[in-house]
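A reminder from the course coordinator: this example appears on the midterm review sheet, so study it carefully.

Given structure:
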């Protein structure tokens, strides 16, 4: 299975095997970084409800700056969550409802060595098999996915934020019906729109 631009042209990259046991905690369990009032906060307005994120400006500065740049220019408006796997993650931020990839900025450096794990409720950069290839796409972990952390055999996936409100919306998205539109798989049968990403606080 792939996680960023490999399978979904701008989509995902090659993911390693992950645990099959989903976690159903009501709130996001993303405690690797203490909440910091100075951290930027954004609201992802989706067609199924709002998801509020705290972004880790100190731990993942390049990734946060990159995400905010896309948000501030309205890049995410009208994109979709194009890859949804109920026991793994939900991914979006780069495809239109007709599964066309949007042109992106230059990729950012991989910051997966920041010590923050891909736990339930964390937000990470999607990428290709090349470590420093992340652009606009991101994913929200719906369970603990430690296999995506940096390790001796993988550069890992950069965690740059966590869900602080709206995990119930994430869980609603994770369980939508999915289908295949070759060459794309795990695509919601009914598009889940990212209507906009609103920056509500910043350093």
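Designed residues:
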């Amino acid at each position: 299975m792939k996680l960023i631009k490999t399978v979904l042209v701008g989509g995902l990259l090659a993911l390693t095997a992950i645990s099959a046991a989903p976690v159903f905690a009501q709130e996001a369990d993303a405690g690797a970084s203490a909440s910091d009032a100075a951290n930027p906060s954004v609201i992802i307005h989706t067609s199924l409800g709002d998801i509020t994120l705290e972004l880790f400006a100190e731990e993942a500065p390049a990734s946060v700056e990159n995400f905010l740049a896309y948000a501030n220019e309205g890049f995410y408006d009208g994109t979709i969550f194009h890859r949804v796997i109920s026991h793994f993650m939900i991914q979006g931020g780069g495809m239109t409802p007709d599964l066309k990839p949007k042109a992106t900025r230059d990729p950012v450096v991989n910051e997966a060595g920041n010590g923050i794990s891909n736990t339930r409720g964390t937000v990470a950069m999607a990428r290709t098999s090349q470590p420093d290839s992340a652009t606009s796409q991101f994913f929200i972990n719906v369970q603990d996915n430690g296999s995506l952390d940096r390790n001796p055999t993988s550069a890992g996936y950069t965690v740059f934020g966590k869900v602080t409100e709206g995990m119930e919306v994430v869980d609603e998205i994770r369980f939508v019906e999915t289908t295949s539109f070759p060459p794309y798989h795990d695509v919601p049968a009914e598009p889940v729109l990212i209507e906009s990403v609103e920056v509500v606080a910043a350093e």
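The two ends are 37 Å apart (CA to CA). Residues 2-16+25-201 form a domain with the Cyclophilin fold (CATH 2.40.100.10).
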